[in-house]
Amino acid sequence: MKRAYAHLKFKLYKTHKMKNTLYRALAIVTLSISLFSCSSDDNNETITGNGKITLKFDNAFGANDLILNTQGNTTSNNEVLKISLVKYIVSNVVFTKADGTTFTYPKSKSYFIADESTAAGQQFQLADIPAGDYTKVKFGIGVDEEQWKLGAAGQGDFLAKADAAGMMWSWAAGYKFLALEGTFTSPTVTTATPFMIHTGKTGTDYNYTEVTLDLPTKALVRTNITPAVHIITDLSKIIDGKNKIKLSDNNMGGMGAMIMGGANLPLITQNISAMFRVDHVHND
Questions:
Q1: Claim: this prediction has a pTM higher than 0.90
Q2: 117: helix, strand or coil
Q3: Res. 24: pLDDT tops 70
Q4: What total number of domains does the chain contain?
Q5: 70 by DSSP, 3-state: which?
Q6: How far is Cα of residue 174 from the mean position of the Cα atoms in its chain?
Q7: Which of 84, 123, 181, 268 is most buried when burial is the number of CB atoms within 10 A of its CB?
Q8: Cα separation of 79 and 86, whole Å?
Q9: In this structure, are strands 132-141 and 80-97 parallel, antiparallel, or unpaired?
């Protein structure tokens, strides 16, 4: 009788233990399904609305932040530049999302003048950007030929802005895409001598170029987040990039180096396309 009772007690214990194990297993499965469901909901979250992005242009010369007028900037040709003016036209901005889709900023609003001498000329806020995670930015330096061919009446208010900023030659001659000015010395030019580099349309060379930059971290555009994309512009590459150009070779009659056309301009345009990089992205 005692043995039968003990056997029954053991069977009840095993049954109870198995039930506890089963309950625990069911609890784990239920929790896993719940967590997976939450994770799936997060991954499938639809991002809606529009936001803004700020493009910040930080001019430098090589590894040094640019200081106008006083800073000596040395090229690989041992020419020392003191830069007094830096301006360039930024245009035709396109953003690429993580999924590969793109957003082209409206062309009528997509022309800006970067100017080292003013705070407003060092950053531009672009509004009505579809919310999303962006991984690339593309922009032009200069005014594209398609836009210029619309004629003076087709330029909107940008023509007046460019003229006021000194970024026009004349309507027939067109826009200045980039202006770099100052003085220089070299092993053969020992007194400070003026230089001017202006790029733009010359003859059959239109000299407009586009730049595509990868973002080191995603720009998270939301209705309540405005990313700032910090772009470094290495001005040394204008004459000291892939193509090496000596100002002293363009010092006509000792009166100054004036590069505004000729064979050097397409070479400088090639250099310009490589002078930008994204340093970092703030998602604030």
A1: no
A2: coil
A3: no
A4: 2
A5: coil
A6: 25
A7: 268
A8: 18
A9: antiparallel
